[in-house]
Amino acid sequence: MVIMCNLIPVATTVGANKIVPTISIPYPLGDPQTPKEVQWKLRYHRVGVALDALAEDIKEQTVFRVKI
Amino acid sequence: MKKAIHYINQFFAGIGGEELADHKPEIREGLVGPSLALNSVLDGEVTHTIICGDNFMGSNTEEAVKLILGFLEDKEFDIFIAGPAFQAGRYGVACGTIAKAVKEKFNVPVLTSMNEENPGVEMFKKDMHIFKGGKSAAKLRDDVKVMADFANKLLMGEKTGSADEEGFFPRGIRAQVWLENGPIASKRGVDMLIKKLNDEEYISELPIPELDRVEIASPIMDLSKANIALITTGGIVPVNNPDRIQSASATRWGRYDISNDDRLQSGVYKTIHAGFDPAAADADPNVVMPVDAMKAYLKEGKFGKLHKYFYSTVGTGTTQAEAMRMGKEIVEKLREDNVDGVIMTAT
């Protein structure tokens, strides 16, 4: 399982093993202040990171890097 | 007169609820909201109140901490008190975050109070005194009193007691004490052993905290053949909320068929989560439950199959016990349907 969330310290403390950061609490994957295409790009990218993370062989709790 | 500075969130300052949780940090002279209660039981004066929106602290932590430490630079204070935060998760984490930073920079005692279900307890109990608080603001006066009693001892330079005696969460610090009277350690140890052998109850003097860790799952070998499911604690449900999932302290979950949807439509799905401003999620539920992005990757063949249902519940005020039960129930269903991996989004 991969968790996508904004409060990374909470996720690490409760013991999630694969973590992908999101951008906020009310809109984790798309800031409504930005154009739809920008939101889509961000969401598409981060969900892709989460999918790749599922296939990643990790040895310890990992917060995956996002580029957008 | 000793001086204290108090940290509270935008809600308790009377500024507003979730829609104003992005409120930037500010400092006010004197008392605001819960500071009145604190000031009335403290052997000292609460000179300033710092107010910050929970989401601002959560999402812009570095900036929030920097601003607040800046406010404090020219202030004189003997103690820093945050909360109480009850069962409010983001507020608890905010109290812990700022109190820890203040302690590191100004080397003054810092105190806060939270309910045991607050994730802030686990995160910060080793860093500071966190007093065991109630579930909701109904306990405000009681929780403030417990903190103030301890603060008064610190301010007066009096001796303080153990975690149990004072009412804070054990910090993992072992203190050696001389018992005024009572049996010596060897006698107490043998007494305990005898009780243990007789299956009687005894209280250890060296409790070992339990760690709840989940083993790392083995990776998915071939993503292009994998069956992936989506789960959220963000409360995304069909607009009529057919499973009547509660908006807070949820005990129910639901699953909804997305096999024929390219994305979650606004007006068909919405969030019922009471812990954040729903405007963005209602306008486009995909910002919480990214069905659209998953469908795009599915079409590209990045993974094999998107499980026909997404699962949803609400993660605010939800107890760990209920969360664990719901998690187990959902995992059972996912196993029945041969799901290989899960992406869970949280708000």
The largest pleated sheet of chain A is described as: 3 strands, parallel
Which strand order spans the largest sheet of chain A, edge to edge or round the barrel?
1-2-3
The coarse silhouette of chain A is flat
Query: Structural class of the helices, strands and pairings of chain B?
Result: alpha/beta
Q: Quaternary status of these chains?
A: heterodimer
Mean pLDDT of chain A: 96
Strand content of chain B: 15-25%
Determine the CATH topology of the largest domain in chain B. Rossmann fold
Give the class-level CATH name of the largest domain in chain B.
Alpha Beta
Question: What's the end-to-end separation of chain A, in Å?
Answer: 22 Å
For the record, the count of structural domains of chain B works out to: 2
User: Biggest sheet of chain B, open or closed, and with what strands and sense?
Assistant: 6 strands, mixed
Under the CATH scheme, the architecture of the largest domain in chain B is 3-Layer(aba) Sandwich
Question: Got a strand count of chain A?
Answer: 3
Write down the Rg of chain A. 12 Å
Using the CA coordinates, give the radius of gyration of chain B.
24 Å
Summarize it.
The complex is a heterodimer of chains A (68) and B (347). Chain A is an alpha/beta fold and 68 residues long. Chain A has helices spanning 8-14, 36-54, and strands at residues 2-5, 18-21, 62-63.
Describe the overall structure:
The complex is a heterodimer of chains A (68) and B (347). Chain A has 2 helices and 3 strands, in the order βαβαβ. With 68 residues, chain A is of the alpha/beta class. Chain A has one domain (3-63). In chain A, strands 1-2-3 form a 3-stranded parallel β-sheet, sandwiched between helices. The longest helix of chain A is centred in the middle third of the chain and has 19 residues, at 36-54. Chain A is flat, with a radius of gyration of 12 Å. Chain B has 347 residues and is α/β, with parallel strands linked by helices. Chain B folds into 2 domains: 3-166, 3-Layer(aba) Sandwich (Rossmann fold), CATH 3.40.50.2300; 223-345, no CATH class. In chain B, 33% of the residues lie in helices and 18% in strands. Chain B has 11 helices and 12 strands. A 6-stranded mixed β-sheet of chain B has the order 2-3-1-4-5-6, sandwiched between helices. In chain B, helix 1 crosses helix 6 and helix 3 (61-72) packs across helix 4. Classes of the chains: A alpha/beta (68), B alpha/beta (347). At the A-B interface, strand 1, helix 1 and helix 2 of A face helix 2, helix 4, helix 5, helix 9 and helix 10 of B.
